[in-house]
Design a protein that fits this description.
Strand content: under 5%
Shape: globular
Structural class: mainly alpha
Number of domains: 3
Largest sheet: none
Number of helices: 27
Distance between the termini: 82 Å
Radius of gyration: 28 Å
Amino acid sequence: MHDQGASGGGNGYEWRPPGRVRAKVSEWPRQRIDPHALFGLATGRWAWTAGLRAAVAMSTSFALVSFLFDPAAGSLAALGSMTALYEKNTPYAHRAVSLALVAAGFVVSVALGSLSSFSLWTAAAAIGLVAGVATWACQSLRVDPPGPFFFVLVCAITTIVPSGIGAVPQHAGVAAIGAGIGWLVSMSGALFRARNPENRAVAAAFRQLGALLRAIGTPRLDHVQHQASLAVSTAWRIMLQAQTRGYRDTARAARLRALLRWVSDIHLTATEVALSRSEPLPGAAADFADELARAVGRPDLAPSPDALDEARKGLRPRSFESRLYSHLARAAQSARKREHEEEGRGAGLHDRRTPPVLDALRSGLSRESLTRPTALRMGITVTAAGMLAILLGFDRFYWVSITAASVLQGGNVVLTANRSAQRALGTAIGVVIGAGILTLDPPLAVVIVGASLLQGLAQMVIARNFFYASIALTPMALMVAYTAAPYPVDQLVQARLVDTVVGSFVGVLGALLLWRSASAARLPQTIATALETSRSVMVEALDPDVRITPERRYRLRRDLRRDLVSLRGVYDSAVGDVPRAEHTRPLWPVVIATQRTGYLALSALALEDPPPASHITLQRLDLAFRELGAALEQRRAPRLGALPRLADYPRVNLELRALATAMRTAMATDERDAAAEEQRRVQREQRRAREEILGDL
């Protein structure tokens, strides 16, 4: 891939390596159970569009099928309409196929729930099976939230609808009608703003880039850097999903791809500046990036390149900071155009739209993937929750299964505990609201409108806080379930509260007992994988005998960025796996040094004509990377020795030395903890022996 504006002899830039300044490592991420985590609002926007779609899809399907058949069938159609909750941000060409698969999953879930309804035990097993399989499929195929939860909800409520084997086709059919309506509602935006998902993704990357520029020289740098990299990766994924032959050949699509390349290059240049600077940047740079975000969909809002002239004053023309401003200015020139030439930066993205479905599903079953233990934990816990409720004599056992599935979507122990508390408190309030509505014995029309409005409200707030979403989801689910199978309201309220408490408890128990250390156990290998990819990129980029083709350059950047994002995701999951977090915390400096080394490798790869290194230097650099990776895999301190002198890339050596030091510190901490644990074990045995002797006396 050709990177215009990159340093190198071909662009008129002279390579000037930055000073030996290492940015301070940000404070390690902490996941806690506290009032802010329970009730505070996450950053972001209210999902008005998602809420509106959810309300329209549910009300339309609920009303239509109730009119054609009966209210119980209408409730199943309402559940099927929840396809509108999925793939909210993907391009419409990709969304059409993905939502069809989601709809098929809902129909299968309804069929399984209907088939298993002849026995409580088979129903509990079916709900658990759907939970496990849906978790595996959603995570393997990278389905955005709400993930597997609504598949479980659909299957669970279907088990209570009066039926027999003969009713299965009808139930599946009405669910298909609801799913079809959800598909139509979700795809309706293609008629008005066909490229809105791609515009939003690229604009979000520019906004996050602005946040990164503001974070330079602050303690938040490493966290914001990860968010920026995640936003850029998401923009690439969405643009790839939009790549079809007809779409790729349009000049407006070429403009979006050009802007995507600019935001990717600016991100890497900002990384170079961030890792060599201890003071904040002028605010004009971040403001300029924010204006670029607004200009993605509105070329007339593109900022003037002259707006950065004041910030450039006093800078060396060939410095990294000057190159950052040059990239921003040239991105503004691209943003001002409504169309872009189909050659150059607007050419194809050298990749297929998405990995084959079967390959993605197989990767979710691999030993290295976190998907397999997560899916097994979900399936086993949800099944156990349902069967425990049956043994306890709960009439509506499926609410326990639904609650367990909901809280387990948190991921690690801390997030699961937070979600459990949010679910319990939100359900308690929501049950009161639902009981108040059902006590009035509202007509079907009121139930349809009320449930739809509550569903829309829940989807609008769920990304900001699950507690407030639970307050709306609970009465919605009660109204749908009551329509499917009427039940005395007072008993329904009491049972729902007890079911929520039991389901939350079982969910947390499952997170504590089943594969709790899966993330922590995979973290060293994930670090080693990111280091290996960084090694490959760095050696290939600096080898004077290697000519990297645009396609090869793209694939190297894609793979390394993916590994760096995955590394932080695994660490964030591991740090919440109580009590293993105490063993994971010392690896935070290792993770940061690995990420920074990877970003430096990406920056070297982005240069069109980077200063090469000698073969001996490359061999020594290669050995240093391999030794660090081997030390991680073997859980020992690295024996790094003297690093090769990289005059043109001094910060690579700086980060590698920091990585080696962090690894030695982490290993020493592990050894001290192991020695302390062994000492405590010996003391326990000695105390037990004394007690036995005293008992004999």
